[in-house]
Amino acid sequence: MAPEIDQQVKPLAPKAYRFRSDEDEALYMQQRLHRRRCIKCCGCFTALFLILAVVMLVLAFTVFHIKDPVIRMNSVTLQQPVGAGALRATVIADVSVKNPNLVAFRYGNSTTTVYYRGEMVGEGTIPQGKAKARRTQRMNMTMYIMLDKILAVPSYNKDSNSGALPMSTFTKLSGSVKILKIKKKNVVVEMNCSFTYNVTSKAIFQDNKCNSCVRL
Q1: Are residues 54 and 92 in the same domain?
Q2: How many domains does the chain have?
Q3: Domain range holding 211?
Q4: Cβ atoms within 10 A of the Cβ of 24, count?
Q5: Percent of the chain beyond pLDDT 90?
Q6: Between 111 and 87, where is the model more confident?
Q7: Are 115 and 48 part of one and the same domain?
Q8: Which of 127, 97, 129, 106 is nearest to 178 (CA)?
Q9: Where, by residue number, does the polypeptide cross the bilayer (predicted)?
Q10: CATH classification at residue 208
């Protein structure tokens, strides 16, 4: 008979508990504190990035978004009635420049040209200036109309007999908008207006037909 094999399993010896030394404990606390600081720094940078993103988004739709300035010819009046022997007529136009932007719109000297039946018969000058943020700048512009050029137009006699001379003006205003002294955007505003000179009353009637366009 074969000898019996002792199949009794001996229990494993319990694993010895590893005690931490003071140096290990200090190192563990230092690493834990370092991780906390890293998490806080990452959180701060993330929050700062989100705040900057929101600020830039708001600026993109407000300050950095350049709106079209608007130029208008509010009224046109004849300052000096046309008399016998007069060489030119002086016309005063009430012009306004509306700036809808959050920064100032600066423009240089601009010219307004007067036409009669497609022929240039006079001009005026708008002095350089500045339309403040969200403000309207109003000014008086003097235009000089040369009468000899009007008389040289072939249809003058016909229009004079009808009592009305149809005229028009073209104004080009060039300026710029500077944002935070960093971004500069050039703006060109063009405007076409029409009015009628009454031969009998020697008065100018504005037809309220002004078309303007803006080129950025």
Answers
A1: no
A2: 2
A3: 70-215
A4: 11
A5: 31
A6: 111
A7: no
A8: 106
A9: 38-64
A10: 2.60.40.10
Q: Which residues are CB-contacts of 93 (< 8 A; sequence separation ≥ 6)?
A: 73, 75, 76, 77, 112, 124, 140, 141, 142, 143, 169
Domain boundary among the residues 61, 88, 115 is at 61
Check residue 214 and give its pLDDT: 85
Distance CA(184)–CA(10), nearest Å, equals: 88
- Report the chain's mean pLDDT, rounded to a whole number: 81
Query: How far is residue 54's CA from residue 103's CA, in Å, rounded to a whole number?
Result: 21
* 60-66 contact pairs (CB < 8 A, 24+): 62/102, 63/102, 63/103, 63/179, 63/180, 64/179, 64/183, 66/101, 66/177, 66/179, 66/185, 66/187, 66/216
* 52: its two tokens: 């900057």
Q: Are residues 53 and 91 in the same domain?
A: no
pTM over 0.90: no
